[in-house]
Write a structure and sequence with these properties.
Strand content: 35-45%
CATH class: Alpha Beta
Number of helices: 4
Helix content: 10-25%
Number of strands: 10
CATH superfamily: Mog1/PsbP, alpha/beta/alpha sandwich
Distance between the termini: 49 Å
Number of domains: 1
CATH topology: Protein Transport Mog1p, Chain A
Order of helices and strands: HEEEEEHHEEEEHE
Length: about 200
């Protein structure tokens, strides 16, 4: 029997509060140049979160407002965002950075591949399935890097997950994820475009 919407939302909340940082182990860090990104499109009202712990300015939807919060997992700050109760499909995002990491450009694709496969195993894929996740070039606003999208599950709920690892120029790397109910990721393309495409470094 499929979990009811409230149960599904509790799963998303649990992943945010307890498991989000597990997607981005420091050891894992190291162009599908997306046609979804159109910088000429106007933005609706958004809320801007300046997060010095991550060195980022993060934009979240404000119509209706998404909830954003900074949590700490194993000493690492993670910014989380969750769709409001009335929103469909229930969805969540995580934002992580490594401000002290100087990663040569030649190593970025390998590090992104490792991080995305690690995220896939955290969402229930076995090692072979994780190796099968296609990792392609991607761009969101000023960020360039690699992303993978896969079907996973958590606590009995089928989910779709997208993970992006990249950076602006030679700046420190970041890792972004968004996850929602299975089959619902296409509904979030505009959210991803507006949020990830608006991320900026604070300095």
């Amino acid at each position: 029997m499929k979990p009811q919407p409230q149960a599904r939302r509790r799963v998303l909340a649990t992943l945010l509060s307890a498991g989000a940082a597990g997607l981005w182990a420091p050891t894992a860090l190291a162009q599908r140049l997306s046609p979804r990104i159109d910088p000429t499109r106007a933005l609706r009202e958004m809320r801007i979160h300046k997060v010095p712990e991550l060195g980022l300015e993060i934009w979240l939807e404000n119509q209706p407002p998404w909830a954003g919060a900074l949590i700490t997992e194993k000493g690492r700050p993670i910014f989380t965002a969750q769709s409001p109760d009335a929103y469909h499909p229930p969805s969540a995002m995580t934002f992580a950075t490594w401000p002290g990491e100087a990663v040569p450009q030649a190593q970025m694709s390998t590090l992104a591949l490792t991080a995305i496969r690690s995220a896939a195993t955290n969402f229930g894929l076995n090692a072979g399935q994780a190796r099968g996740v296609a990792v392609l070039p991607a761009q969101y606003g000023v960020l360039q890097g690699s992303e993978g999208e896969f079907a996973g599950y958590a606590q009995g709920v089928d989910m779709d997950v997208r993970v992006f690892v990249g950076r602006q120029g030679e700046r420190f790397p970041l890792a972004l994820s968004i996850y929602t109910l299975r089959g619902k990721m296409p509904h979030l393309e505009e959210v991803v475009r507006r949020c990830w495409g608006s991320i900026a470094y604070l300095s």
